[in-house]
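User: Just a sanity check before I run the rest of the batch. Below are the structure tokens for the first item. I only need the designed sequence back.
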């Protein structure tokens, strides 16, 4: 097989069938990188458990009525700390609100913050990483120093300071403020991973072949490098989603994240902690859901990482 044919097959993410290292099975049928990853994921029970939890949390966020028909804001102090009854399977908190209903509806704010923060960090990290990795030189040096400066700032401490400053000028639930804060502070790891992947991909034969055919930098980055550098980037963003949800809950717990009328696990944990001696259920329920959500996204990211890079197992 010629070098140009090798470059073309590599560009498509497929190992040439004539490659001795591919083995006899690959000689009969070749698979792309993503097909190989899916083949491994289907046999990983951690992937299926994490996926089931993620689907459950997303359904709770999008259609909370599927799980609880009660109004989470319909509170009555006469039901303060009342036990389970009717649709309130977890009882009531100190304000007389349905604990289960508030826990279910609390998923929406957390998922919204996590998803939009990941989208923001993904865009910033993609642009910075692609530019630094492809062009190199002085541009790479400047962007890398910017990444180092942001990485040197403790995430939680900076988020607290920035949230206080931004929330003073904004009204509403605070979702937009938390998303902006997490987006500004959380893009550095994604940028570093993308930069490393681009540096590894730009030296491949298919990139050289594209240059020889007259492709410009933007076309090479978009059509040839990005598809082959995207896998580790997706893994980082999946894990970051769980981290952002935990950070949002922490900020809301400290009363500098989401605000009423938003329903958040962090707000409910902070409120229930003051009355834990009277009833522990209002504290335990959102804490368990928060833990499972963060754990699900981290497990999902680890499973995807192992599938795309079996050497990390």
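Assistant: Here's the designed sequence for the first item:
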């Amino acid at each position: 097989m010629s070098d140009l044919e090798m470059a073309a097959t590599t560009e498509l993410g497929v190992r040439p069938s004539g490659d001795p290292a591919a083995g006899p099975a690959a000689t009969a049928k070749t698979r792309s990188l993503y097909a190989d990853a899916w083949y491994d994921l289907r046999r990983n029970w951690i992937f299926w458990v994490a996926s089931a939890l993620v689907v459950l949390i997303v359904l709770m966020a999008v259609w909370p009525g599927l799980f609880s028909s009660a109004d989470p804001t319909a509170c009555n102090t006469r039901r303060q700390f009342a036990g389970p009854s009717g649709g309130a399977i977890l009882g009531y908190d100190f304000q007389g609100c349905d604990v289960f209903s508030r826990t279910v509806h609390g998923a929406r704010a957390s998922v919204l913050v996590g998803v939009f923060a990941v989208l923001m960090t993904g865009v910033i990290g993609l642009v910075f990483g692609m530019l630094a990795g492809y062009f190199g030189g002085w541009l790479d040096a400047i962007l890398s120093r910017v990444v180092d400066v942001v990485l040197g700032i403790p995430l939680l401490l900076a988020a607290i300071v920035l949230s206080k400053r931004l929330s003073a000028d904004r009204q509403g639930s605070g979702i937009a403020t938390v998303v902006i804060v997490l987006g500004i502070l959380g893009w550095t790891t994604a940028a570093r991973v993308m930069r490393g992947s681009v540096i590894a991909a730009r030296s491949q034969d298919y990139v050289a072949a594209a240059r020889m055919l007259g492709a410009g930098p933007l076309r090479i980055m978009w059509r040839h490098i990005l598809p082959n550098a995207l896998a580790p980037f997706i893994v980082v963003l999946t894990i970051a989603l769980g981290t952002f949800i935990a950070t949002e809950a922490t900020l809301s717990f400290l009363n500098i994240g989401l605000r009423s009328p938003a329903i958040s696990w962090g707000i409910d944990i902070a409120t229930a902690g003051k009355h834990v001696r009277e009833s522990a259920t209002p504290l335990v329920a959102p804490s368990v859901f928060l833990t499972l959500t963060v754990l699900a996204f981290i497990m999902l990211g680890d499973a995807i990482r192992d599938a795309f890079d079996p050497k990390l197992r």
